[in-house]
Design a protein that fits this description.
This is APO domain-containing protein. By secondary structure, the chain is an alpha+beta fold. The protein is built from 9 helices and 17 strands. The model is unreliable at about 1-40, about 240-245 and about 250-255 (pLDDT under 50).
């Protein structure tokens, strides 16, 4: 937010009117704008706001001018060299060596995250979800903030009706189609939408980056592929690796016993560290391995191209014959953080009041859950949680400016 500083001074008025000879008459009240003060405080970062309307498209992570310039450069390079061997991984079908270990770390962090959430949600901290919308609240008592947008919310004055929630309400992993060969067959057509396996997109990203799972086989090449006039051609034979060591990550019984002896704060801190490790590792992998998302719906597909299944129900899907409007995905599309209201006093009996909602902060549900369980507040979300804001009492709202 920018604030314009206005100075009212007779000296400034005299200089301004003398320089303006075209004005025939001088009024008594004139103002002169000198400079602009920027009031944007980085300590108060707001929650990413959703689309205002359902017809509004998601913002592009990369500007459109850069995308057009890249497309022109690729078109010119294909004209200059119609047949060439791709050199850079993973476009040439090979794995990126430095990201193989990162993929294994992300896969392990996801398992540890789900294991820690099962202990926190089922034992320590209750999770509540609205019966009519997707609102989630972490705590024993649901809040009274009127933000419900579900059916017949007008009859309830937008008040939420709470029920018991689960792990899927705290963190959500969208599913996508599994690609057996991400370079040779990067797309799933509409007729294959029921025959191709689906799995969480974060797991598919780890599989394409180097994690071998027995239930989801994938082709591993040892030689790069060729690009002939924009089409991928595999001219080498016998490039498939037959022997693969499948990854099995299971918590041992001794590990379970050690975690049972751990206190609640240690379990919550370990769970939060797994969350940050998974997100940071996924962001590193997404710099090399492309992930696509629909611009109008939450659909996600890991791979160089989006699938062709006609299942979009977003805005303007009739003009696209049900096809998705694919664009570059972000980390929030791959691992969706469900933002909830921050409760400063989890043991308090009074719920969050609707008239004081501008004094409350927000945080991802996984962060709020771990903080209430005893984990330290991460520095990335201190400003968003409004920890330095003291909310007034209900009878003091009218006295606050």
């Amino acid at each position: 937010m920018q604030r314009t500083l206005i100075l009212k001074c007779p000296l400034f008025e005299t200089l301004f009117f003398r320089s303006n000879r075209s004005s025939s008459s001088v009024t008594s009240s004139r103002t002169l704008t000198t400079h602009i003060i920027n009031d944007d405080n980085p300590l108060y970062a707001d929650v990413p706001k959703p689309c205002k309307t359902k017809s509004e498209r998601k913002p592009y992570p990369t500007p459109m001018k850069i995308l057009i310039r890249r497309a022109k450069e690729q078109r010119e390079s294909r004209k200059a060299e119609p047949c060439k061997m791709l050199e850079h991984a993973p476009e040439n079908g090979l794995l990126v060596p430095e990201l193989i270990e990162v993929a294994h770390q992300v896969y392990r962090a996801r398992d540890l995250l789900l294991d820690g959430l099962s202990k926190l949600v089922n034992v320590a901290i209750p999770v509540k979800r609205c019966r009519f919308c997707f609102e989630v609240h972490i705590g024993h008592v649901g809040h009274e903030i009127r933000t419900c947008t579900g059916p017949k919310s007008g009859f309830r004055s937008a008040t939420h009706v709470w029920r018991r929630g689960g792990i899927a309400d705290v963190v959500h992993f969208p599913h996508c189609y599994h690609l057996d060969d991400r370079v040779g067959k990067p797309r799933v057509v509409h007729k294959e939408r029921f025959t191709v396996q689906k799995l969480p997109a974060i797991v598919e990203l780890c599989v394409q980056a180097g994690v071998d799972l027995e239930d989801y086989p994938t082709r591993r090449r040892t030689r790069p592929v060729y690009c002939v006039e924009g089409r991928i051609v595999d001219l080498e034979s016998g490039t498939e690796v037959e022997s693969q060591s499948f990854a099995h990550y299971s918590l041992s019984q001794s590990g379970d016993t050690d975690e049972q002896l751990m206190c609640l704060s240690e379990v919550s801190a370990k769970t939060m560290n797994s969350w940050f490790e998974m997100r940071s590792g996924a962001m590193r992998i997404m710099e090399k391995y492309s992930v696509q998302t629909c611009g109008y719906c939450p659909e996600v597909q890991v791979g160089p191209k989006g699938h062709k299944a006609k299942a979009c129900r977003g805005a303007k899907h009739q003009s696209r014959a049900g096809m998705h409007a694919w664009q570059e995905a972000t980390i929030d599309d791959l691992i969706r953080p469900n933002y909830v209201w921050h409760v400063k006093d989890p043991n308090g009996s009074s719920p969050l009041d609707n008239s004081l909602k501008r004094y409350y902060g927000k945080a991802p549900a996984i962060v709020e859950l771990c903080v209430q369980a005893g984990a330290p507040v991460p520095d990335e979300y201190r400003s968003m949680m409004r920890l330095d804001v003291v909310s007034p009492c209900r009878d003091e709202v009218d006295l606050v400016a």
